[in-house]
Specification:
disordered C terminus, Lambda Exonuclease, Chain A, 6 strands, 40% helix
Length: 221
C-alpha cells in the first residue's frame, strides 16, 4: 500500500540556486527584472546536445561555427565522452521538468543506468570539474530526480556541447552541504544582499543598480 502523500514546500528554481551560488545580489536584481528567458543563441547551443551521434563523426565543414575548438579536438573529446557514458546519446527522457521536495527546474536529459540528470551549459568548462554554480544546480537536479523516482541518485552530468566536454558531478557530502547553504540563502532573501566586489562583477548586467563594477553568469549556467 502506498504511504500518505509527502508534503511539498515552496519550490526554489534550479536557476535561482545557480545564480545565488554565483552572487546572491545578482539573484535579487534578476528577480526584480524577472529576466528568465534564454537568448536564442543559448537554445541553439543546447540543441547540439541532442546531436551527439552525428557530431562525433561530423566533417570539419559541418563542425565549422558549431564547435568552440578545432574539429579534431572536438571529435576526440566527444568520442571519449560517449564511450564512457553512451547513454548521453540515447537518454531515457529529454527536456524534463523535475519537481523535488525543495526545488524544481528543467534538465536536458534523464539517464536510466545509472539514474542521473544532465544539465547543458552554453559556456566553457573549467580546467577540471564544473563551475560552482553548476555544481549546486546539478545537486538540486539530482535530488529532485531522486524525489520523483523515490530512489537514490548519486551523480549528475554537466555537458558543454560546443567544447565536446562532459563532466560528472558526484552528489557528495560536501556538494550537498554547498547546495543546502545556497538553498538557505535563497529562502532567507527578503531584500538586497550585501554587495561584493570582485572579478565576477566586471560584466554583470546589474552593475549600475548594484553600485559596483561587475564575470558573466551566462558562461557558468
Amino acid at each position: 500500500m502506498p504511504g500518505p502523500p509527502r508534503a511539498v514546500t515552496d519550490h526554489v528554481a534550479f536557476s535561482d540556486l545557480a545564480t545565488a551560488a554565483y552572487c546572491p545580489r545578482q539573484l535579487y536584481y534578476r528577480r526584480i527584472e524577472d529576466a528568465r528567458g534564454l537568448p536564442e543563441s543559448v537554445e541553439r547551443v543546447r540543441e547540439l546536445a541532442d546531436r551527439y551521434p552525428t557530431l562525433v563523426d561530423a566533417s570539419d565543414t559541418a563542425l565549422a561555427g558549431l564547435a568552440a575548438v578545432d574539429p579534431a579536438t572536438y571529435r576526440a573529446r566527444l568520442g571519449a565522452a560517449l564511450t564512457r557514458w553512451p547513454a548521453l546519446a540515447d537518454p531515457t527522457e529529454t527536456d524534463v521538468l523535475l519537481t523535488g521536495k525543495d526545488c524544481r527546474g528543467r534538465v536536458a536529459k534523464v539517464l536510466a543506468d545509472p539514474l542521473a540528470p544532465t544539465l547543458v551549459s552554453p559556456g566553457e568548462p573549467p580546467e577540471s570539474g564544473v563551475w560552482e554554480p553548476q555544481k549546486v544546480r546539478a545537486v538540486a537536479a539530482a535530488k529532485a530526480l531522486a524525489w520523483r523516482e523515490e530512489a537514490s541518485v548519486g551523480r549528475a552530468y554537466v555537458e558543454y556541447p560546443r567544447h565536446g566536454v562532459v563532466r560528472e558531478v558526484r552528489v557528495s557530502t560536501r556538494a550537498k552541504a554547498a547546495y543546502r547553504r545556497v538553498l538557505r540563502t535563497v529562502r532567507a532573501m527578503d531584500g538586497p544582499p550585501a554587495r561584493r566586489s570582485d572579478s565576477r562583477c566586471r560584466t554583470c548586467r546589474y552593475r549600475e543598480e548594484c553600485g559596483v563594477r561587475t564575470r558573466s553568469l551566462a558562461s557558468l549556467l
